[in-house]
Amino acid sequence: MDKRVLLLCLASTSVWSANPQHALLLQGVPKYGADFKHFEYVEPAATKGGSVRLSALGTFDSLNPFVLKGVAAAGLGNTYETLTQGSDDEPFTEYGLIAESMEVAADDSWVIFNLRPQARFHDGSPITAADVVFSFDTLKSKGQPFFRFYYASVVSGEALGERRVRFNFSAAGNRELPLIMGQLPILSKNHWSAKEFEKTTLTPWVSSGPYRIKSLDPGRSITYELDESYWGRDLPINVGRHNFKTMRYEYYRDATIALEAFKSGNYDLRQENVSKNWATAYGNPALREGLIKKESIAHQIPTGMQGFWFNTRKPLFSDRRVREALSYAFDFEWTNENLFYGAYTRTASYFSNSELASRGVPQGLELQILEPYLGKVPDEVFSKPFEPPVSDGSGNIRRQLRNALSLLKEAGWRVDKETKKLANSQGQVFAFEIMLAQPEFERVVLPFKRNLERLGIEMRVRTVDAAQYEKRLEDYDFDMTISSLGQSLSPGNEQRDYWTSSVADNPGGRNIAGVRDPVVDALVEKLIVARDREQLVAHTRALDRVLLYGHYVIPNWHIRAFRVAYWDKFRRPRIAPKYAFGLDTWWVDEAREAELAKRRQALQGN
User: Domains plus CATH for the chain?
Assistant: First the structure.
């Protein structure tokens, strides 16, 4: 054989071969070995049975959560599966679910998934490589815009056999892509090939998860039932999980009605997101008698960014100085003390509550990453750590408002002496609307509105229903809104959809602020191909710092615990997962449930 041909064959063999592995991760070694029995944060002997009733707000008109059209019902994630399953006590590690094992190229240019022979859809048909390829092609071409960008670097999927599928990547070195493909939701090709995927549907579709849809009342409620013949119930990743026989979501018009329904016993468990409610609204006889439990369960999840988001597509908010000026009108310290009972911490990073958050001034590797952009980003990026404006909590923010007026003056805005309104040289009055989806936020934005009025700015407050909010957000039909953006401990390809110029005008995308900054674009791409944890942390901190000084959002607040209230019929594992609430590990204690019923009856009799 020609020597050159031999070398080519050897090179090809090394590129297209890899050892099967039971887990995928970015760095280090997986916490759980190939022979593990169950996750540490579950109770393997948990009882299966009983029911849990939960709440949802607004309405729903679709059972397809993967398309832009319609409002998908709550809880659908329990009905479908992915190739792999993440653990909730590791930053970013995935273990085989539908896939029995995975193979990754040495240069990360492809990944192969070997499917479990016992994996089945609910109609009994096997899950095959053809279903996996169909799922990828369908979601990328017909699913929500997010999928196009999340899978942007995946060139193709190809079936190598009935239970063996390979995904090929556009370039080597993107270590996150194998894990991203492990998160691929798997659709039944046989079911969906005869249907229009982009349309809403209220007909349950063929899926493979631990739960099936038992019944639904469109827009009002949906009930899921544990599939007794679920193919994956005995897998190590599922032991101790999916313990409720039925899960029912009741829909309520707003959060106030939902809270009263909970206290009346119409549903069993709620996570409380309103500090005033947590402090004052649960003082009913059921709580005093111990029928309702309240717990704060600490977690280590990055809290992400909740805030007042600017739509920079609007000319009014295209100037960074204007956006920064308005941040001085939000008095967090007064708000926290007077409205939130001091429960919250001000958010100062898009990656707060994690090592990924920027801090101090850039040094070392982070400084090296940022130095090429000197003069292309605000000087403050290099000279001082980002801190939102701080008041003394008294409600007197004259100093902050002076700072705001100074910035607005630099940007060409002046207060008209006669009208007392802020206007520019063309006579345009500074006025905008903030769009809310929850009435509870009105008490937060009204003091903000009053402070803006002192600057001569008119802010109209408009609260819309959940469906209208989602639609307007998808179409970027807003001036400012309150929204939140979660982050993981291993940010990567999804950051393209959050921040980059190429997606800023795509309907339904997640770049809701409309960020268009070549520096941000470059930092996102470099973050995606970070070689190790040190590189990832440094690139994320650099991106965080540049975004913060772009003033795309006025940061709100966060808390580092789940606030949970529940009727006392549940048990949960001794160890809570670090990075999730973990309701799928809870179970119903039949004896406790029977006792609860007696005590409720006695309480009602009194």
Answer: 305-558 (3.10.105.10)
